[in-house]
Structures are given as C-alpha cells and as structure tokens.
Amino acid sequence: MAFTNEQLERYSRHIILQEVGVKGQKKLLNASVLIIGAGGLGAPAALYLAAAGVGTIGIVDADEVDLSNLQRQVIHTTNDVGKAKVKSAAETMEAINPDVTVKTYRTFVDSTNIMDLIKDYDFIIDGTDNFPAKFLINDACVMAGKPFSHAGIIRFKGQLMTYVPGEGPCYRCVFKNPPPKDAVPTCKQAGVIGAMGGVIGSLQAMEAIKYIIGKGELLTGKLLTYDALKMEFHTIKLPKDHHCAVCGDEPTITELIDYEQAECDLK
Amino acid sequence: MADIKIDDTVDITDVVCPVTFVKAKVALEELEDGEVLAVKMNDGEPVQNVPRSIKEEGHQILKLEDNEDGTYTLIVRKVEE
Question: Where do runs of H (alpha helix) occur along chain A?
Fold first, then answer.
C-alpha cells in the first residue's frame, strides 16, 4: 500500500516520528480497535483514534445522545441530541478522517453478544461507566486473548490500566469482584468534571496506538491514577494474581457473568 | 570519488516542510539496508533541514550536489536501525 500525497500530508506529524514512521502509520491504517461506550471516555478515544488513521474503529453503545452528555462527550454536538450515540460518533469520526471505516453496534454488551463483538478487533477500549460491564469486558478479553484498556472516571479522579494476554494482571486480579450494588456511586450520582474524560480517554487512545505500533511501555502490571484537584499522577505496580478467578492458573470463572446493575442506573 | 550507484531517486521540490522530509523518509523506508537514494530538493529551507533530519534518523549522507539551477541533490545511504 503506497501513501497518497494527501495521506503523506495528513499523517506527516506521525511519519516524522522515528517511533511511528511509514511502518507505524501503515500498522495504524491496518489496525482495528473496538470502543465499548461512546461516552465520556469513548468520545475522546474515538476522536484521537480516527484522527490517527486507525483503519477500522468499532463503536458499541445502545444509548441516545442526551443534553446532559454534552458537558464531556465531545464527539457529539447539540444538534445530535436524541440521535443514537453510535451514529453521532460515526458521523464525527468519518468527517475527521475518511480513511477510517467505522462500524456501529447499537447495543449494550452482555454475556450473549460480547465474544462476537470483540472477536474481529486487535484492541478493545473499555469506555463503560459501570462495574458489570467492566468485569464482563475483562473476562471476555481474558477468555478471547484480546488486549484491552480499562479506565474509570468519577468526580475529579481517573484511573487506567492495560491488559495484554500473558503480560501482567487482568482487571479481576486487582479488583476481584464488583462492589455491592450502590456501594460505589456512578458519575450520574457523583458527578464528573468533563475534562477528566478527555484526559483519561486520550490516554486510552495512546495505549491503543502504542500497542498497535509496538513502541514504548504499556500500563501492563501498572495502574495509573490521576487526581485533578491535586494535579497528581501516580503509577502503582500491580502483580498478576496466580489465583485469579479468570486469568489464574486454575480459573473458576469459565463462563461470562451478567452482574446486576445498580437500580438507580436503570431507566 | 568514484561514481556512486543510485538505487532510487525522489523529487521533493513539489512539496513544502514538513512533507519534504516525510516524502524523503517514505522513499528511504522503501529501500533495503545499504541502498542509496538521491533526493532532489530546493535551495533554502529544505537544504538546511532535510539532510539534518535524515542524518538524525541514522542514515549516512554521502554528498550534496549543487545542480546550479536552484536545486540540490542529496545522496544518502540507508542505514537500518
């Protein structure tokens, strides 16, 4: 595949980088990333991955754009209120970069559909806002041998880690089980500063890009936390748990689980 | 100096910074280790910057010829990382 002059110009700032170059940009154009959730995290991740020229981007979300989303979900505009989030996100990504093929899945992930959704993708981004989905994505990616980026944001705080099969812990090694229903507030109840999605979602895009081009170090075996009020980033080293219920030596979870959603999050 | 065998040539006089270097870099990536590329560029900014950028990537600059028509030809040997 040869670059057109237009592509040389579009990706010039990437191609100039020694770590990306022609080879890295071609890897990006040939890569596929699935973003689960077109919200606070998924929006900036999708924008940067589309701009970077990731050739195929899948986006999963069952919701419609709500006015209360626009404070942080920067891929949608006021005119998109009421539209399916995946459609709105796809339109923005295609407008940014016609090199990108966007695939939309208007659904929530659950134990019946997730394996089929992730199977054709090189890297998965967890941009969801609830524990049942986060554990489901983790377990599915472990079982399917797919790398993924976990992230969570609330109030002025954010965190992320990256799972790569065979390298370091999975989300369940660290967090074991979902907290009891309503033990941890959601963004809806607790609030979240809009730019937090921009910081952490962009870091998720960065992890996906580094994984694709094969350069640098990923957040495998590490949890990065960000406190915006203190303006502090910390990286905590995390070991793999050999007794982990899903990725350990003798896994006890061999089928996907649909954990119950907290009542207040159900419409 | 004996004539150097040129394996490929690229003309970057039709583009401006930073695509000048990008176009040269793309041409270099197509070559095998040790092969030689001739890069035709305009006087001025490209002559100042493109050879330096190529050198920073680890390639070997063999010579820079003045074509005496406002352009220069840079002869580079590809050095694989």
Answer: 5-10, 12-15, 21-30, 42-52, 85-96, 114-118, 131-144, 171-175, 187-190, 194-213
DSSP β-bridge partners for residue A163:
A148
- Band the pLDDT of A3: cuts 50, 70, 90: confident
User: Where on the phi/psi map is residue A176: left (φ > 0), alpha (ψ -120 to 50), or beta?
Assistant: left
DSSP strand pairing (A157-163 vs A148-154) = antiparallel
Are A23 and B18 an interchain contact pair (Cβ–Cβ within 8 Å)?
A: no
Cβ atoms within 10 A of the Cβ of A150, count?
Answer: 26
pTM confidence score:
0.91
CB atoms within 10 A of CB A263: 8
Torsion of CA A167, A48, A89, A123, to 10 degrees: -20
* Residues in A touching B19 (Cβ below 8 Å): 5, 8-9, 12
Beta bridge partners, A154, equal A157
Angle (CA) B40 B42 B48, round 5°:
100
pLDDT in tens, B34-51: 999 999 999 999 999 999
What sign for the dihedral angle of Cα A128, A134, A140, A146?
positive
Beta strand extents in chain A (DSSP E only): 32-36, 56-60, 101-105, 123-126, 148-154, 157-163, 222-227, 232-237
ipTM of the complex: 0.74
Nearest CA in chain B to A9: B19
The 10 Å CB-count burial string (b at 16+, else e) for A201-213 is bebbbbbbbbbbb
Banded pLDDT at A267 (limits 50, 70, 90): very low
| Token duo for residue A16 | 């100039």
Measured CA to CA in angstroms, residue A18 lies from A112, A216, B22 at distances of: 43, 12, 11
Pairing mode, strands B60-66 and B71-77: antiparallel
Rounded-to-integer distance, Cα A257 and Cα A253, Å: 8
A12 touches chain B (CB under 8 A): yes
Contact A5 B29 (CB under 8 A): no
